[in-house]
Design a protein that fits this description.
- The protein has 20 helices and 4 strands.
- By secondary structure, it is mainly alpha-helical.
- Helix 3 packs antiparallel against helix 5 and helix 3 packs across helix 10.
- The chain is elongated, with a radius of gyration of 31 Å.
């Protein structure tokens, strides 16, 4: 427009988006905050090693998001915890991916945190003035391990239950207050409902609050002192975080997330049988990141046990906390710090060796890996009439299981089908011949005896499920290589990856209630409800 005495040209109105952005900035100052975040000055030569912090922060964020969604479906009580995890994995849309991200994310976070800490040690980034930044990082690592420990119990399966029993027993070995710490962890005389409640509260309330507080402190201190940069500072001016290093961070986070997603989709997060406090024969094993400590217990016995359970772990934490105050010289080059680097390399080697030995000594699940349900059913049948009429101490035949069998399958099957084949007059009521499924079950048992594979120790529920499967279901289905495979019925070996225990309970009871065209007969009036429940829970563990 034109005004007399002044020539003023038209000034274009600001774009609507610009007006909104300016309005928001005037009231929040977000543009200033964004500028502070993106314009962080970085030393020249800052490379890919410095993306580890962003990767770790991204992984922690994924755990928070997936954990929040899991909380909506998880029920923290012994009666429903296992079933709720089963529902998440098999009944909830994309639930197996959700739990897989959270399950494998724990391992990814431990790896990222340890590698990040090793980078700081090798680069000497803990030195003055970053001592407190280092201390906050050590506490962050301890909190991450606390998450891994408390989250392990929540599925309430055999692995979780018995590993927690071992953990609380280890806590008891602490001097002076060990028994009180153990009682506090358990909430009672044994691992039970109070234990699950307390560990859940720590996992979703106390530890997240502590983790957020220390992350904020760590980031504040990092921004206050800046990152240390490469060991040998390069000539050149400082350059902003955005865009060069921001691209590196983005690519690093994307690559790690892609790997985590693949594990979540194809890895099938493990879930063992439901927790059974009566099954004291179960051999507990921790997750791989605690396996070195578990393995170390084998070398310290009796009065020396606290050395492995409390002494060495405490010493490692104390050394980490005091590292910046021991190594106070400004030199950051690894070759110029032989003591710190040498001790670190030795520690890495010791942990790797112990973990490797622990993995090598980890037993397989005997009932699933070496003995099929049919073999377990055959063992149960062989321990009862009519077999024990002869196969008993002082009887006409040796006790089954005391010696390796020499007869082939044809002979054993013939003998089971018609005992008179080798002993005329043996078939006397009520000890008659076994039916076809019973014969196949005992034959599967005999194969294990010939192979000299020791029998597994299984709980009552697993044995009952095996007997039902071996003597009723395997006329149509196959499982672990056994069965008649008639009528086109599916293989049940990995049924736990497809269905929940609740779904299988309904299906076994009355298939017609789920599919009116179902060919499978209803077992609701044939089996007891407890038998159906045992079978459904057992099948749900098969991955």
């Amino acid at each position: 427009m034109e005004t007399r005495g002044n020539s003023v040209k038209d000034v274009p109105e600001p774009h609507a988006r610009g007006r909104v952005s300016q309005w928001c900035h005037d009231r929040t100052g977000y543009q200033t905050a964004l500028k502070v975040l993106l314009d962080e000055p970085l030393p020249s030569g800052t490379g890919w090693w410095f993306t580890l912090g962003s990767i770790l922060l991204a992984l922690i964020s994924i755990q928070f998001v997936t954990g929040f969604v899991l909380m909506m479906y998880y029920v923290p009580t012994p009666a429903y915890a296992y079933d709720s995890v089963q529902y998440i994995m098999h009944g909830l849309t994309f639930g197996h991916i959700l739990r897989g991200l959270h399950f494998y994310g724990a391992s990814f976070i431990v790896i990222a945190a340890v590698v990040h800490m090793l980078r700081v040690i090798f680069f000497g980034s803990y030195k003055q003035p970053r001592e407190v930044t280092w201390l906050s990082g050590v506490f962050l690592l301890l909190l991450i391990l606390g998450f891994a420990l408390t989250g392990y119990l929540l599925p309430w399966d055999q692995r979780a239950y018995w590993a927690t029993v071992v953990t609380t027993n280890i806590a008891k070995t602490a001097p002076f207050a060990g028994s009180y710490v153990s009682a506090l962890m358990k909430g009672g005389p044994d691992v039970g409902a109070m234990t699950l409640s307390r560990w859940y509260a720590m996992h979703v309330i106390l530890l997240p609050a502590g983790l957020v507080a220390f992350i904020l402190l760590h980031l504040f201190l990092m921004r206050r002192h800046g990152i240390s940069g490469p060991v040998r500072p390069r000539a050149g001016r400082m350059h902003p975080f955005y865009p060069d290093h921001a691209i590196k961070d983005t690519l690093g986070v994307a690559a790690v997330f892609a790997a985590l997603f693949c594990f979540a989709v194809y890895g099938h997060a493990t879930l063992a049988a439901p927790a059974n406090p009566a099954d004291a024969s179960y051999v507990p094993r921790p997750e791989w990141y605690f396996l070195s400590l578990f393995q170390m217990l084998k070398y310290f016995h009796g009065a020396l046990e606290p050395v492995a359970t409390i002494g060495i772990p405490t010493l490692v934490v104390v050394v980490l906390l005091l590292l910046p105050f021991f190594d106070r010289k400004p030199e950051r080059r690894p070759l110029k710090r032989p003591v710190v680097i040498g001790v670190t390399v030795l520690a890495i080697g010791a942990v790797a060796t112990l973990t490797s030995l622990g993995l090598r000594d980890t037993p397989t699940e005997p009932a699933l890996a070496t003995w099929s349900p049919a073999a377990i059913a055959g063992q149960t049948i062989a321990a009862s009439s009519p077999c024990t009429s002869c196969h008993t101490d002082g009887g006409a035949a040796a006790v089954l299981g005391t010696a390796k069998l020499t007869h082939d399958d044809f002979w054993i099957k013939g003998h089971l089908s018609d005992p008179e084949m080798i002993a005329p007059g043996l078939r006397t009521p009520p000890a008659g011949a076994l039916n076809t499924l019973q014969v196949n079950a005992v034959l599967a048992y005999a194969k294990k005896l010939r192979e000299d594979i020791p029998p597994p120790t299984v709980d009552a529920q697993t044995r009952e499920a095996s007997v039902v499967l071996g003597t009723r279901c395997m006329g149509c289905h196959t499982l672990a290589g056994d069965g008649l495979a008639s009528n086109g019925a599916p293989d049940l070996s990995h049924e736990g990856t497809k269905r929940t225990a609740d779904w299988m309970h309904k299906w076994i009871t009355d298939p017609g209630s789920i599919d009116e065209n179902a060919m499978m007969p209803a077992f609701g009036g044939v089996l007891t409800d407890q038998q159906i429940k045992d079978v459904a829970n057992y099948l749900a563990t098969l991955k």
